[in-house]
Specification:
Helices cover 53% and strands 6% of the residues. The chain is built from 13 helices and four strands. The chain has a two-stranded parallel ribbon. Strands 3-4 form a two-stranded antiparallel sheet. A hairpin with a 6-residue loop joins strand 3 and strand 4. Helix 1 packs across helix 2 and helix 9 (164-173) crosses helix 11 (199-208). It has 270 residues and is mostly helical.
């Protein structure tokens, strides 16, 4: 459109870095603009943040992984010191803080919200209630964007960007306590609104949107939900009959797997 042409004209042949933040809810529109700019403005570099790639020519995707253990603990301590003057990572706090960061998957927002609770709770007490994470982490900075004020709001935002079929697959993958193969995912999540032939593309889309993590292993690719995402998915599955049906499919798949592979593994299944 005329606005896009005006932007490209204004940038022209100048050396410039254009930063576009949080593009996930406008991916198609942003992709059109970026594609125009990079083709008409050879000296312009675009840095975009999004839950999924834009899919334009020349794009290089740099995944932002959850914080590593030491990084997560350092962030927790920094935010806890801001919440309670004099807070220190004493020996009695260290184990609880480490376990909290692990249970929160190294997600910066979750860690910040948990650390804010230090104003009225010890790290050990926070850890005791981590299974209620969406209620526990329900108060953030008033000046933050609404979707960054609580853990639930952040996950609601990401879930809301999924297609209906992606939402169904995401919810159903929550029945896997750990990771799963694509074969297992296809056997458990397909049906009732999810075409079996679409499962590969739907799981791929969830990985691209940072809702499902890919673990590449020598024995084959595996897919998993972070603990926070799994808790959210299980809440959504809690409707009448849904969770029972998915757990039934899950049990059937692993029973069939055990019967087929048992002899090779030296296990007898009767």
């Amino acid at each position: 459109g005329s606005r896009d042409d005006a932007l490209a004209g204004a940038l022209g042949r100048r050396h410039a870095l254009v930063v576009l933040d949080n593009c996930e809810h406008l991916v198609d529109r942003v992709a059109d603009v970026v594609d125009l700019v990079v083709h008409r403005c050879p000296r312009v570099t675009v840095l975009a943040t999004s839950q999924e790639g834009l899919g334009v020519d020349g794009e290089v995707t740099l995944p932002v992984r959850p914080l590593r253990e030491q990084e997560a603990e350092r962030l927790f301590v920094e935010r806890a010191m801001a919440a309670r003057h004099g807070f220190e990572l004493s020996p009695e706090h260290a184990a609880a803080v480490g376990e909290l960061c692990r249970r929160l998957d190294g997600i910066p927002l979750a860690i910040e919200l948990a650390a804010a609770r230090v104003a009225s709770m010890s790290p050990a007490a926070i850890l005791e209630r981590i299974d209620e994470r969406f209620r526990l982490l329900g108060h953030g900075r008033r000046t933050a964007r609404r979707r960054h004020q609580t853990l639930r709001a952040a996950v609601d935002w990401s879930y809301g960007l999924l297609s209906p079929a992606e939402q169904l697959v995401f919810e159903r993958l929550a029945v896997f306590a750990g990771s799963c193969t694509l074969d297992a995912a296809e056997a458990v999540v397909a049906g009732d609104g999810v075409d079996p032939v679409d499962v590969l593309d739907l799981v791929t889309g969830l990985v691209a949107k940072s809702m499902v993590h890919l673990d590449e292993r020598a024995t084959g690719d595996r897919y998993r939900l972070l603990e926070t995402m799994r808790d959210y998915g299980l809440e959504l599955l809690a409707g009448p009959g849904q969770q029972d049906a998915m757990q039934g499919r899950h049990a059937e798949w692993f029973l069939a797997f055990a019967v087929a592979e048992g002899p090779r593994l030296g296990v007898s299944v009767e």
